[in-house]
Fold:
Amino acid sequence: MANLDTLAPDARPDGAQANVILRAENLRKKYRTGEEDLEVLRGVSIELREGETVAITGASGVGKSTLLHILGALDRPTEGSLHIRGVDVLDLDDDERAEFRSAHVGFVFQFHNLLPEFTALENVMMPALIARHADGMEARARGLLEQVDLAQRLDHRPGELSGGECQRVAVARALVMKPELVLADEPSGNLDDVASRRLHDLMRELARVENQAFLVMTHDRDLAASLDRTGHIDGGILELC
Structure:
């Protein structure tokens, strides 16, 4: 496997580009359906900087999740370019992309995808255990679970938690490795109003204190309005404010 440090000659550029975390240009995604191509994304471009929070809204089925998966290097576009911290992510092989994601990107999926046989604390620690960076991570995992009001549920397994509690565990799991980029798909979709507000506050605080960038796909208008920038995707085209 290549040394990822050698793959990012512009990862710490001077001047205005120094705080750019993500830059995607002209992303297109097509799926073959029978004899026709279905174009889900049509030339999407977006840039995120350190400490920036961005919400993207749009109806179901317009390509929000597809875009999120491409930006997080879980899927490949049909066309376009994607750089995270100056690294041409699309030029990495599968193992290199997986290693890069683990170090730089955190995901909050619409469906929490927790491992049922592990406790909430163990689920939050799982990315660190997989990456073999477990030193000090138990304390961080406990702290994150406290921040999402689950201090009393550390030893509970997903089957013993409500849907909203599982989603909060998933949020803590996405943050445990201190990723520079956090991609979230409807992170507050299963939460009540109080928990949603606390989650929104936590994202903004982490963006401010730890310079993390958050890109959130959401139907939650209150969440979208509370972030730095908003965008709307329709017909595979993204318009950012």
